[in-house]
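Title: Comparing notes on inverse folding

I've been comparing how different people in this forum approach sequence design from structure. To keep things fair, I'm posting one structure and asking everyone to reply with a full sequence. Here's the target:
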């Protein structure tokens, strides 16, 4: 190998210059060495007495840099490798990795030819893989074939493949906000109770105490959409039942009219106990009605009690007069399916009933009656 002369300048700051008198190495008064260009260490010069050939010494430890044909390593003073980069560009850390950035800690996985992913190894065949694909961030099992959690960047939606558990503290809760101050809340409580509510008020309790199943608190009501209700289809049927859905309940007051099949007529001027209740399709009405005026009924063939809360579904004889005055001695009636009304019937000479005809009723004067009506309506 040919020898090359390297000039050395002696001064208060010694330096080594190259053949063109350009400074290559400088040693200052504090023994700091500055290299003007890169440092090239050949493979044979890296190791000395079992240690790496280049080291950095701090107050109580050493860090060694080591290069070889298989890659590049960083070792401690016990020759334990903590970081390696192999010839294929793969990096391996044997300890913890701390990331620090003055504008915020960050770890960036950059997409190249494949979607970026991060693998976290657990026990045998219990790895987690975090993958970014398009707008989705996905947590999967092992080889990425089975999803655990998917987060959508654009819609902000989260999809869990299994159960979601919130810690087992007695006051654990899940809050689902609507973007404002309101929120739907679900909370587990002591005694196997599940609370549900909104706006910091729990209205529903589901109990597991062997007695109560669902309790509505704070004056809350159970509200069903129209046409829906409590379904009893799980119970034993009679055999020919057409529905086991309890889909309606209603109660209030009603005002009867004395009229005909062609004329509504007039309302009773005074009503006592004129109540009705509807449970599913079953309706019951009661009342003491005082006074009807015949002068309001000027046409029609048959006298009727009209303005029932709901129209009868069939011609049943569900109306009963417990007391009546000046009303043709009517004792009962049968329903009219097209009108919310009942025909008024009176007994015949042979015991068979007949209609209370308008022609047989007074043209003036008043009528009184106590009535009970029980019937089915269509819905």
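Reply #1:
Here's my take.
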């Amino acid at each position: 190998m040919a020898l090359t002369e390297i000039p050395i300048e002696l001064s208060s700051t010694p330096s080594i210059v190259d053949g063109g008198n350009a400074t290559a190495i400088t040693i200052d008064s504090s023994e700091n060495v500055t290299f003007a260009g890169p440092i090239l260490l050949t493979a044979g010069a890296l190791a000395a007495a079992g240690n790496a050939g280049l080291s950095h010494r701090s107050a109580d430890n050493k860090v060694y840099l080591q290069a070889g044909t298989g890659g590049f390593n960083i070792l401690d003073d016990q020759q334990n490798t903590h970081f390696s980069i192999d010839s294929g560009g793969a990096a391996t850390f044997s300890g913890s990795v701390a990331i620090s950035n003055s504008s915020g800690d960050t770890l960036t996985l950059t997409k190249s030819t494949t979607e970026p992913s991060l693998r976290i190894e657990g026990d045998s065949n219990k790895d987690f893989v975090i993958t970014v694909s398009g707008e989705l961030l996905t947590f999967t099992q092992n080889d990425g074939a089975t999803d655990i959690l998917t987060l959508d960047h654009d819609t902000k939606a989260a999809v869990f493949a299994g159960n979601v558990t919130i810690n087992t503290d007695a006051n654990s809760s899940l809050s689902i906000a609507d973007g404002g101050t309101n929120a739907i809340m679900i909370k587990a409580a002591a005694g196997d109770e599940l609370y549900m509510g909104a706006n910091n008020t729990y209205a529903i309790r589901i109990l597991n105490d062997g007695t109560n199943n669902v309790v509505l608190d704070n004056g809350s009501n159970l509200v069903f959409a129209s046409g829906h209700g409590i379904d009893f289809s799980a119970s034993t049927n009679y055999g020919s039942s057409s529905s086991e859905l309890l889909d309606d309940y209603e109660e209030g007051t009603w005002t009867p009219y004395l009229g005909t099949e062609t004329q509504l007529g007039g309302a009773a001027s005074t009503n006592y106990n004129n109540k009705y209740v509807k449970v599913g399709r079953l309706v019951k009405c009661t009342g003491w009605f005082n006074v009807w005026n015949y002068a309001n009924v000027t046409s029609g063939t048959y006298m009727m009690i009209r303005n029932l809360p709901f129209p009868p579904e069939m011609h049943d004889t569900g109306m009963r007069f417990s007391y009546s005055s000046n009303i043709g001695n009517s004792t009962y009636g049968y329903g009219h399916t097209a009108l919310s009304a009942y025909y008024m019937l009176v007994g015949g000479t042979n015991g068979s009933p007949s209609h209370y005809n308008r022609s047989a009723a007074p043209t003036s004067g008043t009528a009184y009656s106590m009535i009970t009506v029980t019937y089915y309506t269509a819905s």
